[in-house]
UniProtKB/TrEMBL annotation, chain A:
This is High-affinity branched-chain amino acid transport ATP-binding protein. Residues 5-236 form the ABC transporter domain. PROSITE patterns: ABC_TRANSPORTER_1, ABC_TRANSPORTER_2. Coiled coil: none annotated. GO terms for biological process: L-amino acid transport. The lineage of its organism: Bacteria, Pseudomonadati, Pseudomonadota, Gammaproteobacteria, Oceanospirillales. PANTHER family: HIGH-AFFINITY BRANCHED-CHAIN AMINO ACID TRANSPORT ATP-BINDING PROTEIN LIVF (PTHR43820).
UniProtKB/TrEMBL annotation, chain B:
GO terms for molecular function: branched-chain amino acid transmembrane transporter activity. It comes from Maribrevibacterium harenarium. This is High-affinity branched-chain amino acid ABC transporter permease LivM. Residues 11-108 form the High-affinity branched-chain amino acid transport system permease LivHM N-terminal domain. It is a multi-pass membrane protein. The gene is livM. NCBIfam families: PRK11301.1. GO terms for cellular component: plasma membrane. The lineage of its organism: Bacteria, Pseudomonadati, Pseudomonadota, Gammaproteobacteria, Oceanospirillales. The chain crosses the membrane at residues 12-35, 47-65, 95-113, 119-138, 143-162, 168-190, 262-282, 317-340, 352-375, 387-404. It is found in: Cell inner membrane.
Length: 237, 425
């Protein structure tokens, strides 16, 4: 297995506060890797530091053998890393199709029609709403749109930041089912989640982050039965 | 208001009586009682007339609002959604009929209108250009720019000083001013890339003032408040003055016409008219292109844009530069049409007026900007008698607009995408 994305002792500071402390992890080709942790553990910081927002103050972030620690966000995004950001961040005034078109920026409009059709097959709800403004859709549909938009750039690695945020349990289930489908096409996924139960069931491997440090690592199934994880993230039962 | 679809006459009558009573209370003491020394006369006839007019008006309004058309009107006014509607992919706007008519009318106007009307229309068209330029920066890219007049000044002074010092004429300056203003836009754009909202507004405000103050105080170069004269455009070297400069023939002599000072306005108008259409076309295409979408996306969510791989530096700079270059072109026309420029034409009030055009027209709406530009430049001319109250009326209009139509005169519509040929439905 080849490592697609690798963190080597990455430190991130917000001014005097250290948000990530010597974080090391790897995401291999074709894997689903998840990172679980509580609020404020540094999960979103970790994802955003890949794009240099904020920039890592120490260590290395290596993507496909290239050091991208100091590269600009658009350089990273145009090299096969796509992100569905925390809180969805779709463009509310634009129609669904225009949102999807925004996702094609890194690769151009060449495969646009074909990819859009693929997205509409993957997310039939979006097809129904293709000419509707994105802000008029439900939270779940907006999350689907955010994921579809990220997939429009034909990424090698899909980064997801809390796709279950603020969604009803039944919608969360649907979203994770879709992620399963996406993964079965061979897509490498790095998922940051608070919903440990769903995330660990989906993932091949998982990391547990506490206060900016990686506390534990193992396969999804291992972590799911780990007493410490169960106590902290799965309600202790 | 009653919920039935029919017209409720009783309701209208009640409305009418209430309006009549209120009119009586208001007009009774003011109009009905006329002081006459220490005595007073009752003017019942006048009061009855006024109350009668109010009651009839209220009755008519009441009936209208109960009709289907009135209800639709009320609904449109009351709906407070953020105003963007997506039209069907095959939707054809009525504009495809209106645009050719406006074009033909616009080409006829200079030959039938008086010189005065023509100058007003030229001013209106200059503000259309300014509005379109600022619309890119404020309406599409969402960067609040309070110093837009700076680019306008660069274009105007570019023509005047270029002619004086280097002998550059109108036609050379037209593209050159666009480039100069675009460079100035980039110079302003770089330091403000990280700024948003209020902070950006302050910096751009400062930029506009710097340009004006330099023009005022650098007297050895710009002649300060005395201003500089600017040349008229030429038609293949033919000049429009009564007497041409050495070695040239004036336009009227070449064609054997009697000299008329109106010729130069007709000529400026025709060039300006064509340039406005060209700019309109370019802006229209830009909003449909990826760069136009990128501007709007940046306005809506900058972080999302960056995570999608959008180079926000390029996108913001392109908005600043394209907006500024349009302002520069407008400046060249302004200088040429006035024949003279001085710094007092480029005060903050101008920036505020241009911003008002964009806000009034509806942020991002091209049609709205065109209508608002004409409205705000032609109205003061029509209402010359109320010139003293111009700014007051302007303020009242702004307040009323923000309450009733916060999204501007013309709401933005987005065209839906048709499934392209070759893809499965």
């Amino acid at each position: 297995m080849t490592a697609l994305l690798e963190f080597k002792d990455v430190d991130v500071h917000y001014g005097p506060i250290q948000a990530l402390k010597k974080v090391s992890l790897t995401v291999n080709q074709g894997e689903i890797v998840t990172m679980i942790g509580a609020n404020g553990a540094g999960k979103s910081t970790l994802l955003m530091s890949i794009f240099g927002q904020p920039r890592a103050s120490g260590g290395q972030i290596i993507y496909q053998g290239e050091d991208i620690t100091r590269k600009s966000a658009h350089y990273v995004a145009s090299n096969g890393l796509a992100q569905s950001p925390e809180g969805r961040r779709i463009f509310p005034g634009m129609s669904v199709e225009e949102n999807l078109l925004m996702g094609t920026i890194p690769i151009g409009m060449e495969h646009c029609d074909e990819d859009m059709e693929r997205m509409f097959t993957l997310f039939p709800r979006l097809r129904e709403r293709r000419n509707q403004r994105a802000s008029t859709m439900s939270g779940g549909e907006q999350q689907m749109l955010a994921i579809a938009r990220a997939l429009m750039s034909r990424p090698k690695l899909l980064l997801l930041d809390e796709p279950s945020l603020g969604l009803a349990p039944i919608i969360v289930k649907q979203i994770f089912q879709i992620l399963q489908d996406v993964a079965s096409t061979g897509m490498t996924i790095f998922l940051v989640e608070q919903n440990a139960n769903h995330a660990l069931k989906l993932a091949d491997r998982g990391y547990v982050m506490v206060n900016g440090e990686i506390r534990m690592t193992g396969t999804g199934a291992e972590l799911l039965v780990n007493p410490e994880v169960r106590e902290a993230y799965l309600g202790g039962h | 208001m009653s919920q039935s679809t029919g017209i409720d006459i009783k309701q209208s009558l009640v409305d009418t009586v209430i309006a009549g009573l209120m009119a009586l209370i208001v007009f009774g003491p003011i109009v009905g009682v006329l002081l006459d020394g220490y005595d007073f006369n009752l003017q019942t006839g006048n009061v009855a007339g006024l109350v009668g007019v109010v009651m009839m008006g209220r009755f008519a309004v009441s009936l209208f609002f109960q009709s289907q058309a009135g209800r639709n009107f009320l609904y449109r006014q009351a709906s407070k959604n953020d105003g963007v509607t997506v039209t069907a992919p095959d939707y054809k706007s009525n504009l495809r009929w209106i645009i050719p008519v406006v074009m033909v009318l616009g080409l006829i106007v200079p030959f039938i209108a008086s010189k005065y009307v023509l100058t007003v229309v030229i001013l209106g068209l200059i503000y259309v250009l300014l509005g379109l330029g600022l619309n890119i920066v404020v309406g599409l890219a969402g960067l609040l720019d309070l110093g837009f007049v700076g680019f306008y000044a660069i274009g105007a002074y570019g023509l005047a000083l270029g002619y004086e010092n280097l002998g550059i004429g109108f036609w050379t300056m037209l593209p050159l001013a666009a480039i100069m203003a675009a460079v100035a836009g980039a110079i302003l754009g770089f330091p403000v890339l990280r700024m948003h909202g209020d902070y950006l507004a302050i910096v751009t405000l400062g930029f506009g003032e710097i340009i004006r103050l330099v023009l005022t105080n650098w007297t050895s170069f710009t002649h300060g408040p005395n201003g500089v004269s600017a040349p008229l455009p030429t038609l293949f070297g033919l000049e429009f003055n009564r007497r041409a400069s050495e070695g040239n023939i004036p336009f009227h002599e070449f064609f054997g016409l009697k000299y008329d000072s109106g010729f130069k306005y007709i000529f400026v108008y025709l060039i300006l008219f064509l340039v406005v259409w060209a700019v309109l076309y370019v802006k229209h295409r830009l909003t449909k292109m990826p760069v136009g979408r990128a501007w709007e996306a940046l306005r809506e969510d900058e972080i999302a844009c960056r995570s999608l791989g959008l180079n926000h530096v390029l996108v913001k700079l392109s908005a600043f530069m394209l907006g500024a270059s349009t302002g520069g072109i407008a400046g060249v026309f302004f200088a040429s049409y006035q024949g003279f420029v001085n710094p007092s034409s480029f005060t903050f009030f101008e920036s505020a007026l241009i911003l008002a055009i964009v806000v009034l027209g509806g942020m991002g709406s091209t049609l709205g900007v065109v209508l608002a530009a004409f409205f705000l430049t032609v109205m003061p001319e029509i209402l010359r008698e109320f010139a003293d109250y111009r700014v007051l009326m302007f303020g009242v209009l702004m307040v009323v607009m923000m309450i009733w139509k916060p999204r501007g005169l013309v709401r933005v519509t987005r065209t839906g995408f048709a499934t392209r040929k070759g893809t499965v439905k």
